Amino acid sequence: GAVVSQHPSWVICKSGTSVKIECRSLDFQATTMFWYRQFPKQSLMLMATSNEGSKATYEQGVEKDKFLINHASLTLSTLTVTSAHPEDSSFYICSASTGQGFGYTFGSGTRLTVV
Amino acid sequence: GDSVTQMEGPVTLSEEAFLTINCTYTATGYPSLFWYVQYPGEGLQLLLKATKADDKGSNKGFEATYRKETTSFHLEKGSVQVSDSAVYFCALSDRGAKFGNQFYFGTGTSLTVIP
After folding, report:
1. Interface with chain A: mutation pick from B6, B93, B112, highest number of A CBs within 10 Å
2. How many CA atoms lie within 13 A of A6 on its CB side?
3. C-alpha closest to that of B49 among B108, B13, B103
4. Could you read off the pLDDT of B72-99 as tens digits, one per residue?
5. Residue of A11, A31, A43 to mutate for B, most B C-beta atoms under 10 A
6. What is the pLDDT of residue A104?
7. pLDDT higher for A41 or B10?
8. What is the DSSP string of A11-49?
9. Which of A10, A93, A105 sits opposite B103 (nearest CB)?
10. Which of B79, B85, B87, B61 has its CA nearest to residue B7?
C-alpha cells in the first residue's frame, strides 16, 4: 500500500534556529500534501495544503513566512520552521494524496521541541 | 505499540441507509479517540471525539462510543446523505505515549453515498 515517510520523528532544537521536516511518498506520486499541527491537548489543525509545483495554500492564522512549505516534486514536500521559538513546539504530521479522491496516507509525525 | 485498525473501503451506500464504520485500537496508555473526515480536495476535519471510556462523541448525526472492553470506537449514522461522501479516519491520541500526545491514524474508509 501507499507509504508516506516523515522525518525526523522527533527533534530538539535551540530557539532561533530553523528545522526542516520532510515528507516523502515512497511508492506513489503525491499531487497534494497536507501539513497538520497538533497543539498540546488539542486535535490536529490543518496548516497548509500544497500542490506539486505551486505555492502552498495556508490556513488562516498560519504564518507563511515562518512555516515554509516546498513541494518541488511529486514525492517530496518539506516544512521548514524558521527561527523556531518554544511556542512552536508541537506535533507536526503530513499526509499525501494521489489526487484520485482516495489514498490519503499519513506520515508518522514529527515531535518538535524548541528549547 | 499503539495502533488503529479501521475497516477497509470503499463503502457505497444509498441515501438514507444506515452507516457503520468499524474501528478498533491498541494503546499502552490512556488514549483519546477521534473520527476525522476528509471531503474531496480538502484537509482533515475533526468530526467527533471521546476522551474516556463510555464517552459518546456526536456531531452532524454521526455517533461513536468509546468501548474500552472491546477496544472499539465504531462510527455510526442512522441516515446518510450524499453530502456525507468523504473519507473517514479513525485516530487515537495517546497521552501516555513516549513523546506525549502523538496521533495514530487508521488507513481511512472512503464512503460514497448515491442518490
Report:
1. B93
2. 23
3. B103
4. 999 999 999 999 999 898 988 765 544 4
5. A43
6. 59
7. B10
8. EEE-TT--EEEEEEESSS--SEEEEEEE-TTS-EEEEEE
9. A93
10. B87
Give the three cell numbers for residue B55: 464517552
- pLDDT for residue B38: 79
Q: Do B102 and A34 touch (CB under 8 A)?
A: no
Cell numbers standing for residue B74: 465504531
pLDDT of B41: 62
Q: Which residues pair with B64 in a beta bridge?
A: B57, B75
pLDDT band of residue A42 (cuts 50, 70, 90) is low
Grid cell at residue B18: 444506515
Pairwise CA distance, residues B115 & B112, whole Å: 10
